Task: inverse folding
């Protein structure tokens, strides 16, 4: 059945890179996840559109991922089709300090591109291990900056296969959310960002300073999905976890980082069950001690084993 669908997909989108039973541990920064029935990586926006339209028309469930940096895939894997966007990495200059960026461009590559052109406004994103599509989807932010401060338009395809463009406030950006978190059936294609002219040396200095802060405070040497929990109103998740004496707590090879308690790391060969066990331990302990509910920032998808 899966092989038949793959052949139909290849007939519909010739040349598409497609695999069956692909381990998602190869496609997430956590290095965790069971197999996807089908996995593909479109090489162009047109291929992405055609693949989404194929899945929609055939009634095949599909999941869009970037480089899997804010993602935890369950051990049973993913039924249906996973569409990875990392080959969609083209950037183009537009007028008036506007750049157009495909959904699969890495945030670090985007920041470097902007720096080379002396554009400022994206320094906060340097070192965030995600793609532009994911960053727009969840309004990624750090060190006082957010995507909402520079995104002006986004092209997307809806559940019927039609292409639309959001402009300005239509994105409905909020803390770790947007129009797209409200409408996860929509697929981001590309976005346009309005930046400001700046001094290249000062931009580089800011990028280096922020990267230094990341390296000093975050467990970058271990696989993880970044900050695991959203910031509760009036609190910091990492401090609540640390004050709950949970640094170093483990379930299997999943561990609350000693370096930054807001991170759950894969300290060896952790699976999703290990991470979920530790997540629940952290949530229940923090709730008991401080009365605060911690909500995962990481997107958890897939089937139980």
Result:
């Amino acid at each position: 059945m899966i092989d038949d669908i793959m052949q139909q997909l290849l007939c519909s989108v010739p040349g598409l890179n497609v695999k069956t039973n692909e381990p998602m541990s190869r496609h997430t920064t956590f290095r965790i996840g069971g197999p996807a029935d089908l996995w593909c990586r479109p090489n162009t926006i047109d291929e992405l559109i055609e693949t989404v339209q194929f899945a929609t028309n055939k009634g095949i469930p599909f999941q869009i991922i970037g480089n899997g940096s804010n993602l935890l895939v369950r051990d049973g894997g993913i039924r249906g089709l996973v569409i990875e966007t990392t080959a969609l990495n083209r950037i183009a200059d537009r007028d008036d300090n506007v750049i157009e960026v495909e959904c699969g461009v890495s945030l670090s590559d985007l920041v470097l591109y902007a720096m080379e052109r002396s554009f400022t406004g994206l320094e906060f994103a340097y070192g965030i291990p995600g793609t532009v599509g994911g960053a727009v989807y969840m309004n990624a932010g750090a060190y006082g900056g957010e995507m909402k401060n520079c995104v002006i338009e986004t092209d997307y395809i809806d559940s019927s296969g039609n292409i639309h463009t959001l402009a300005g406030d239509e994105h409905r950006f909020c803390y770790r959310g947007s129009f797209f978190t409200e409408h996860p059936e929509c697929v981001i294609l590309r976005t346009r960002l309005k930046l400001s002219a700046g001094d290249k040396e000062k931009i580089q200095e800011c990028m280096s300073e922020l990267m230094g802060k990341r390296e000093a405070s975050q467990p970058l040497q271990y696989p993880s999905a970044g900050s695991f929990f959203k910031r509760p109103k009036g609190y910091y998740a990492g401090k609540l976890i640390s004050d709950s004496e949970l640094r170093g707590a483990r379930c299997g090879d999943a561990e609350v980082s000693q370096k930054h308690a807001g991170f759950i790391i894969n300290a060896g060969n952790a699976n999703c069950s290990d991470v979920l066990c530790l997540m629940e331990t952290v949530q229940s302990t923090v709730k008991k001690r401080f009365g605060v509910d911690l909500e995962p920032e990481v997107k958890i998808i897939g089937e139980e084993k």
User: Anything to note?
Assistant: The chain has a mean pLDDT of 96. The longest strand covers residues 187-194. The CA atoms of residues 92 and 100 lie 5 Å apart.
